Amino acid sequence: MSSAGHAVDQQRKSTTMKAHFVLVPMMAQGHMIPMTGMARLLAEHGAQVSFVTTPVNAARMAGFVTAVEAAGLAVQLVKLPFPATEFGLPDGCENLDMIQSRDLSRNFMEACGALREPLTARLRQLCPPPSCIISDMVQWWTGEIARELGIPRLTFDGFCTFASLARYIIFRDKLLDNVADEEIVTFSGFPMLLELPKARCPGSLCVPGMEQIRDKMYEEELQSDGNVMNSFQELETLYIESFEQITGKKVWTIGPMCLCDRDSNMMAARGNKASVDEAKCLQWLDSKKPGSVIFVSFGSLASTAPQQLVELGLGLEASKEPFIWVIKAGNKFPEVEEWLADGFEERVKDRGMIIRGWAPQVMILWHQAIGGFMTHCGWNSTIEGICAGVPMITWPHFAEQFLNEKFVVNLLKIGLEIGVKGVAQWGSEHKEVRVTRNAVETAVSTLMNDGEAAQEMRMRAKDLGVKARRALEEGGSSYDNISLLIQEMGNKQNASG
Ligand code: UDP
User: Which CDD domains match (predicted)?
Assistant: First the structure.
């Protein structure tokens, strides 16, 4: 940087030193992880950050805390006791991945809402006072706190802008009301023809009593001062513009958040402690040819039926390609364990690694041996795949994952659909097989081979990976947006005294 540029940068940092962001995530891995990234990025650009969490979640964030302390960043945790038992949840049930049935999701949301008063009291004590709240869309009650404190609130839904816009239209036009699950929903005003069966739309999961919470979220989003996205301008320009036009809200694309974890230790410590020895995992990957391994992982919440896991394993075996397959702790079925031990692991031992529990996903995705990613299309996983520059096989389960599939396959053209039948709603067990072993074998073979279509996808994915990294480099679109966001919130605070 030139000395003049350096001076401007320093001046900008000093004028924005006072900007103090309070981040209130939804307590679920897919929402907390990107917000820890957001905290780092804001702090690296000179802002102060208070990250609101609860004791159990704070314990999971040990790696993050160590990293921000080591980097000397102005990030502090604001820990609030979580009233689980008062709302009919087991003691210590502080994350969505800990609730035993989706029927308890309403209790969980209400317990979150009970943090309103204690959080307001804590925020009043913070010094310097907060200048802005960035909170998850589901933590709608933080809008009330922001008004009480006289500061802006920006919402974060953890989606890409493409899916956020679709979600917005669903709420606005009440597209899911009085519609049967299989009925096709059309999104009017969306920049492309978008049609999906109701059961594949975000918001279709509505346990009794959640409707009011959903309406509150929407009302508060309408009142918010803008939306922060884990995305970057070059990825979805049209949808960012459309979102701003249709909602009248400013969009701040400041991602990809996962790029804040720059070395393999930081990548490995994301979200939770890995259940595999990272060094061994890297050693295994080092022994494989570049681009030869398919990584299979379905995020933190999706549940896969035992028969489906067996079918998936048989498909991977039949493909003859090297693979890493993550079977999450919540999907540890005795019958699957028995089947794995009864010959499968032995048959694939030279080319297959199974991780049971939490995988160091980003660390794995960034390894040069990874040539493809079979994903459930959670947005974090999707953008992590984009950053790593790997093409994907899309296997959506629920929520906005079917929209992300469309985005990846039809618009970005860096993935192929596995062809999921039906919808596996979060938390509701399905016994049937939705994807056959043949479909798995065909998709893996097609993606990992040298055919023209696969090569083109690979090239496009690599190109997007480069663009993603550029967005967060100095002068990149997200880098500049972060600086502008800090400046704007700092100025607002100065103007109000
Ligand atoms: N993740 C991980 N290891 C795992 C499972 C998930 O690191 O074994 C991370 C993954 O990298 C991503 C997040 O957890 O950052 C999952 O978020 P996503 O939006 O993909 O899916 P969700 O879990 O919300 O369905």
Answer: GT1_Gtf-like (cd03784)
Pocket of ligand 1 contains residue 230 by CB under 6 Å: no
At residue 493, the pLDDT reads: 72
pLDDT in the model for residue 204: 56
Beta carbons of 166 and 405 less than 8 angstroms apart: no
pLDDT score, position 8: 43
Q: Interface pTM (ipTM) of the complex?
A: 1.00
CA 27 distance to own-chain centroid = 12
Q: Would you call 325 exposed, middle or buried from its count of C-beta atoms within 10 A (0-12, 13-18, 19+)?
A: buried
Does the C-beta of 379 come closer than 6 Å to ligand 1? yes
pLDDT at 409: 98
Q: What is the dihedral of CA 31, 37, 40, 45, to 10 degrees?
A: -110
Kindly state the tokens that stand for 95. 């994350």
pLDDT for 424 equals: 61
The pLDDT value recorded for residue 44 is 96
Pocket test for ligand 1, best of 258, 296, 380 (most atoms within 8 A of CB): 380
Write out the residue limits of the CATH 3.40.50.2000 domain(s) in the chain.
20-159+204-259+473-489, 269-470
Can you tell me which atom of ligand 1 is nearest the CA of 401?
A: 25
Among 3.10.150.10, 3.40.50.10890, 3.30.70.100, 3.40.50.2000, name the CATH number for the domain at 20-159+204-259+473-489: 3.40.50.2000
Per run of 10 residues, the mean pLDDT along the chain (length 497 residues) is 46 59 96 96 97 96 92 97 98 93 90 98 96 97 98 97 96 91 93 92 71 90 97 98 97 96 75 88 98 97 90 98 93 91 96 96 96 98 98 94 97 96 65 89 96 96 98 98 96 73
CATH class of the structural domain 269-470: alpha beta
For ligand 1, atom 11, the nearest C-alpha belongs to: 361
